[in-house]
Design goal:
Elements: H1 2-28, H2 40-70, H3 76-109, H4 112-145
Length: 153
């Protein structure tokens, strides 16, 4: 459980950096001269992205809060299990933030169609590589090496 906890914390650090960079980018936009020229869709997409960045940041911080509350209470399994679920939700938040931010940038610079196409393309890439690839690798490892499910978590 200690190793699993440390791995989760490392993953959360990576997520936190990405969310901070995207969140920082988003927070600078209203102070740009061109921001007032955004149409209603672009403004809504911008505000949605800011909301997702804030909520994802909260998700990334929750395991630390849980750890502080459960520290030295003999609940490491509960801590790791909860943090695992929360980290998966944070990954979903980061995905939504990446899609939304790219769609916004393409929408503003090239147009609505380009923004929608870019967003859809990134969703497809995420589905193939972030969702599909781990399943494919897992099934290939089982088939090729006879690894039992659940032995390498």
């Amino acid at each position: 459980m200690d190793r699993n906890w440390m791995e989760l914390i490392q993953e959360l650090r990576v997520l936190q950096t990405g969310v901070q960079i995207l969140g920082g980018f988003l927070l600078t936009l209203p102070f740009q001269a061109r921001f007032s020229q955004l149409d209603d869709w672009q403004t809504g997409l911008y505000l949605f992205n800011v909301l997702v960045a804030a909520l994802t940041t909260i998700l990334i911080v929750i395991p630390v809060s849980i750890h502080r509350r459960l520290f030295r209470r003999g609940l490491k399994v509960t801590l790791v299990s909860s943090a695992d679920t929360i980290t998966k939700l944070a990954l979903a938040g980061v995905t939504i933030l990446i899609v939304g931010s790219a769609a916004l940038v393409f929408d503003v610079t090239v147009g609505h169609t380009a923004g929608l196409v870019t967003g859809a393309f990134i969703v497809l890439v995420v589905l193939v590589f972030v969702v599909g690839m781990p399943y494919w690798i897992h099934h290939r490892a089982i088939r090729n090496n006879g690894i039992l499910k659940g032995t390498d978590q």
